[in-house]
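Note to self: keep these together.
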Amino acid sequence: MYNMIKYLLLLTTVVFVIADCVLTYRCYRQPGSPCSQHTLTCSDDHVIAVDETAGFSIAYGRNNPVHACPQDEMDICNATCCRYQGIDKDEPDYEVVPGFIPVNQSDRLSVYRNCSNQPTCTVTSPYSPHTGYHYMFYPYYCLPLNQMHNMMDITDVSLLHEYLYYSGKTQTTGTTITRCCNITSSEPIEVFSVYVDLTEESSYNVKIYSQNQTLLPSGDGGGLFYHLGGLFMSGDTNYHVVFDNLTAEEDDYIWIFLNAGGTAINITCGDCRSPSTASSTDTNSETSSTEGISNIVTSQMSTDTNNKTPSTEETSTSTGKDNHNGGND
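Structure:
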């Protein structure tokens, strides 16, 4: 059971993207119960983006006792008692109870990892006995599938306001990946996270940056997790995404949104080459992986500096970050 509201999702200061905001309630039940498996879904040709902004979170919920599920409705998965019922202080059994209690980090990550960029998914309700919870709450958006582009598949494309992603689930676990994407436009580009989830090891081998800013710094150990809008930068016309000897892990995920105010954004992805190597006609050898990310980044940033006048509107923010071991218990 859910409420669906059509929102104009303000993804940037310039472009509004039509998206379905889905506020889904499911029964809070013990494992093995018919109602303990929760399915989240979007309409055809759309995918799920978990939305924990604007005060929303994946959470448990309690109703006042008068709205608690009677025993004969415990296996009715669409029962009205499995959702928020509001508060009526005139009810005879009224008492103050917390509305929403955020789940812990482990259960939160389970939803992100199972559902992000999927048209439908099934998650098992977190459960702790004797807590008195009545329902689960899952907030998410449904985004157009035709605007999703896998960084491992594209080579040279021109887009408008679209999404780029990398998923460890599409790679063979343990495979070593070296790949660079160059993102350019004639107008300043805005970049922000939809969902970023990297292990500690992977966080050392991925970088997203421009001449003047860094969205995702390489070497930020401890594991990284950013939700919708948790990372944001704008003002430059050239950005780079670099995977340097990244070992594929199933749960690694990078999902970002790009917008240049309706101006075309050109994206080229391929094996990482330094400018001198890529333009040389005397040798076909690629930049050695042993040179590491520092040489690739230094070379590209030097090229940016020579070819681009810095923008007067350079901004970079980093919010909504959670260490993998953090969260509420």
